[in-house]
Amino acid sequence: MTGAAISRPARVAGLVFAAVLGAILLVTLVMVVWVGVRGFLAYGHLRDAQAAAESARSQLTDPAAASGAIDAIAADTAAARSLTSDPLWRLAEGLPWAGPQLSAVSTIAASLDDVAGSALAPLVEVASSFSFDALRPQAGRIDLAGFVSLQDAATTGADGIAQAAASLDEIDHRPLVAPLRSAVDEVDGLLQQTRGATDALARATLLLPSMLGADGPRNYLVLFQNNAEWRSLGGIPGAMAVIHTDGGAMSLAAQGSSSDFTQYEASVLPLSDEILAIYGDRPGKWIQNVTQVPDFAVSAELAKEMWARENGGQQVDGVIALDPVVLSYMLAATGPVPLPTGDVLTTENAVPLLLNDVYQRYQRPADQDLFFAAAAAAVFSALSDGTANPTELVTALARAGDEHRLLMWSAHPEEQAIIAGTTLAGGLPVTDDATSTFGVYLNDGTGSKMDFYLTADSAAEWTQCTADAAGAAHGTAELTVTLTSNAPADAAALPDYITGGGVFDVPPGIARTVGYIYLPEGFELLDATLTGDPGFGGGVHDGRRVVSFTVDLAPGASATATIIARATVPTGPELRIESTPRIGGDTAFAALCSAP
């Protein structure tokens, strides 16, 4: 009796347990199928959105067409977000192994939907009524209303994309399968690219109206850097001009040459002890040397003070720097520009004409200055008369900014805060969680225009590297900088203004280069070698170890500096190099330390 009584409840319990287990398995199966189907559908929508985004890139110069593309992207991202945010999906995100994969997918979908539906949509809606033709000067004046109308939407878009990018940064890569990890990286790259573009637009809409005189007259000192005589930020400021703006109107108010400036007995402004230890007081005593320090905020303030001293105390509202390479880009927008000399300035001949031919044609510096002044006035007229293609002009200026050839500083703190952190600011190389950046800054030591014939090739690689779970790099990197002189064998017979004429005890035909290599922040120097081994100098500049060297090159000769440095703290896994903008030079990706 007792055994029978006990066995019956046991059988009942067993049946109940089996039923519950079956129900759990059934629910689990349903959930797996549900999540799997929805995941498959979401994947399709995200891929469609990606295809639409690629198509939209070619339509960015047509805001109306871009608006339709954004609508299509938003529809797909909204569908993907809906499919990956229901209760069963959220419940599945708590599962071991599969949970992090599902969570990453839902974060991607939500981030992209925030971008397409909330961040970009208002901006595109406003931009659809904006035409690049609004950038054309009419009767010498640019209508500033278009920039003002974009300000709120551009700022909202930039903030929204920054938030989406931050959400993606919170994804833990460690438990993700390789294909999903790659997808996260791909979306992150897309967001970073979009973030950069919208951030630049937001800053431009805030900055340009005031710079163009919306709130009253402004004066800007423009430095034309000469890449034939290297300085860290490009070249010596050989010529300059003052642009006057007022209510959108622009005029060429004054022009000058480096020969107009005196050598000052002491630096016109105080220089930090670190700068003095590395560069001496030369940047503050000669206008030709203000761009020797690779921090444009320092260079611009020195140039501003020097201009004031030579021009009756005139105070400018900001300083802009560019080089003949930028001019060649801008000529794609203006078309060929005739000069009073009978020359025609084009995208093809601007660089050789302004950096070499003029010195062979005119032996007297005064005649060279007249040629440069005439060229600057002619190009300014072509830009301000409204005939330049605005789309091509924006493209040219964006390219120049990316290559660190176009630099800007404002004497108004609130405007300088907008410029800071962009490529236009021309600051020291930045190392962060993503990148470790070397700086390679080159300066002429001949007092000549021989750098027209020099090339510089830089490369960096991790010689030993491990990436931790968070993706930060630990290891040792090697940087090589190779300088080569392509001067003609009879370079000594070139005009003295090109060779330097031996003024600085450098024989004609020889090119002397003084290099300053900035290690990434948090790196220590292990070793440094240079062809010929003449020794190194240097110091520390704002937390960055600096290694300096000097090398003389005869025609056809080359020399290589090799720097080995070790990260003393976890650092960005991607090595990058920022270098002096040169003729045909650029800043490029160097090497990556990958996660295990």
Q: Radius of gyration from the CA trace? A: 30 Å
Distance between the termini: 66 Å
Q: Low-confidence spans: pLDDT under 50, at least 5 residues?
A: 19-34
- Helix count equals 14
Overall mean confidence score, pLDDT: 85
The major β-sheet equals: 6 strands, mixed
- Apparent shape: globular
Strand order across the biggest sheet? 13-14-11-8-16-17
> Portion of residues in helices?
40-55%
Strand segment count: 17
Quick overview:
The chain is an alpha+beta fold and 596 residues long. Helices cover 44% and strands 22% of the residues.
Structure report:
The protein has 596 residues and is α+β, with helices and mostly antiparallel strands. It has helices at residues 2-57, 63-83, 87-92, 98-127, 145-169, 178-211, 273-279, 296-310, 324-334, 350-361, 365-384, 390-402, 413-419, 496-499, and strands spanning 218-226, 236-246, 249-257, 318-322, 337-338, 344-345, 407-410, 435-444, 454-467, 473-485, 511-518, 523-530, 537-541, 544-553, 558-567, 574-579, 589-592.
Topology of this protein?
Blueprint: H1 2-57, H2 63-83, H3 87-92, H4 98-127, H5 145-169, H6 178-211, E1 218-226, E2 236-246, E3 249-257, H7 273-279, H8 296-310, E4 318-322, H9 324-334, E5 337-338, E6 344-345, H10 350-361, H11 365-384, H12 390-402, E7 407-410, H13 413-419, E8 435-444, E9 454-467, E10 473-485, H14 496-499, E11 511-518, E12 523-530, E13 537-541, E14 544-553, E15 558-567, E16 574-579, E17 589-592
Parallel strand pairs: 1-4, 8-16
Antiparallel strand pairs: 1-2, 2-3, 4-7, 5-6, 8-11, 9-10, 10-15, 11-14, 12-15, 13-14, 16-17
